[in-house]
Design brief:
The protein is of the alpha/beta class. It contains 13 helices and 14 strands. Strand 5 and strand 6 form a beta hairpin. Helix 6 crosses helix 13 and helix 10 packs antiparallel against helix 13. The longest helix has 21 residues. The N and C termini lie far apart (about 85 Å).
């Protein structure tokens, strides 16, 4: 007869093997350190480019591009000494923004409502699973005859790409809001749902004006696969989940057919900004194109907002070139009114300007594509809280959800008021 200890060991080994791939095996970031590097010289730039190219133990938030640049890097626990050595030997400045990212993730868990939370308990003090967001959307559609369900297609994994339309009168111009294109940016869908709620339920005269005089099209979670993945597998996941060889996922905001695979994107499958095998290779990006192909002109959609985090920016085209957008001056004026309204709400400072001016070069993004292809003159990508040097990365504390929502709603009021005063949205010219 076999020794009981051998049998027990065998059962443990079998259990361990069979557990591989289950949901409990979530990615962990114990003692991963978030640092901010100041690149002083061209040699520093070359060194960091080489480091990003050769090592998968560092996660870069942005790329090393030029001297006098600040670059945020997440350093694996076993590479902390190596990074310290690189910094000291090469005379770089380094600030530790967060000593242990996993602690932020663990702390955030208490602010996430369970997957089976009923729609009646939806709020903006917690983060919610995809299933709860969808059930809350169903509730709004069922209870309001001016709210209509939109079905834009399916994700790679077969989840619905869901939206809704708010329309209180015929003949309105349209505003399209896309959120959740990057999976880990949880504040983005939260803001989108808050805007929906306010447009449906608010009695504030300025919000009622927006609800009655525009048609609103929302896609609160474009990257449904990725969003679900961040709750169940890896909190810091950015892309969708379509496999490409040994790697997985495409940065959907680099997959649009506007200077696709150009500056600020990557053709390497394992990178965080992988642009896909071709423009519109991903069903989520195609869904936006197909919808706007049919409805942008017919439904007079004249404004497009893409909600992201973080960096507190109100950006307009372009990201791929320093050439100015055809109505650059108007977009700057509208952006200035928006960020002023944000500051007047809770004191937060946002910057406005073209995407390439304010954040970094990028190509293949939704904003530039929509602006360039559908004659939609008002287009912004909004990077929500926190600031560029935030120590919390994409893990915005739940206490900041509602204030972020409130300041963005006020920014919409101010931005659309300014756009009207500049002569946009005249019904007889559409």
């Amino acid at each position: 007869m076999l020794d009981k200890s051998i049998i027990l060991l065998s059962l443990c080994l079998i259990s361990a093997v069979m557990s591989c791939g289950k949901d409990e095996n979530k990615a962990r970031y114990d003692n991963y350190r978030l640092v901010r590097l100041t690149l002083k010289t061209a040699e520093h730039v070359d060194l960091l480019q080489e480091l990003e190219e050769e090592s998968d133990s560092y996660t870069f938030y942005g790329h090393a591009l030029r001297p006098d640049q600040n670059l945020t890097v997440l350093v694996s626990a076993h590479k902390i000494y190596e990074m310290q050595d690189i910094v000291e030997r090469n005379g770089m400045d380094c600030t530790v923004l967060q000593p242990n990212i996993q602690k932020l993730i663990d702390d955030e868990e208490s602010t996430v409502k369970p997957k089976n939370t009923p729609a009646s308990e939806f709020d903006w003090d917690h983060y919610f699973h995809l299933e709860t967001i969808f059930s809350w959307m169903d509730k709004q559609i069922a209870e309001n005859d001016f709210v209509e369900a939109l079905h834009l297609g399916s994700t790679y994994e077969g989840l619905p790409i869901r939206g809704l339309k708010i329309s209180k009168q015929t003949g309105n111009t349209g505003i399209f809001i896309e959120a959740g294109i990057h999976a880990r940016e949880w504040i983005s869908p939260a803001v989108a749902t808050y805007l929906i709620d306010q447009l449906i339920h608010s009695t504030d005269p300025e919000v009622v004006d927006l609800a009655e005089n525009f048609d609103w099209y929302f896609v609160p979670v474009l990257n449904a696969d990725g969003y679900k993945y961040t709750f169940e597998k890896d909190r810091l996941w950015r892309k969708n989940t379509k496999p490409y060889g040994r790697c997985k996922g495409v940065d959907l905001n680099r997959n649009f057919d506007i200077h696709w695979s150009g500056t600020g994107s990557s053709t390497k499958k394992c990178t965080y900004d992988f642009c896909g095998s071709k423009a519109f290779s991903e069903p989520e990006a195609r869904a936006i194109k197909i919808f706007l192909d049919e409805y942008a002109n017919k439904n007079k959609i004249q404004t497009y907002f893409s909600l992201h985090s973080f960096s507190q920016l109100y950006m307009f085209p372009y990201g791929f070139t320093t050439d100015r957008a055809r109505n650059y001056d108007d977009l700057k004026k509208i952006g200035e009114k928006a960020v002023e309204a944000i500051k007047n709400t809770h004191g937060k400072i946002y910057q406005t300007g073209s995407s390439i001016e304010t954040i970094y070069p990028n190509s293949g993004d939704s904003m530039d594509f929509v602006y360039s292809n559908y004659n939609i003159p008002i287009a912004y990508t909004i990077e929500l809280r926190g600031p560029p040097d935030t120590p919390t990365l994409f893990i915005l504390p739940a206490a900041e959800i509602k204030p972020t929502c409130e300041e963005i709603l006020n920014s919409f009021i101010a931005a659309l008021k300014e756009a009207r005063q500049l002569g946009y949205y005249k019904r007889d010219e559409l």
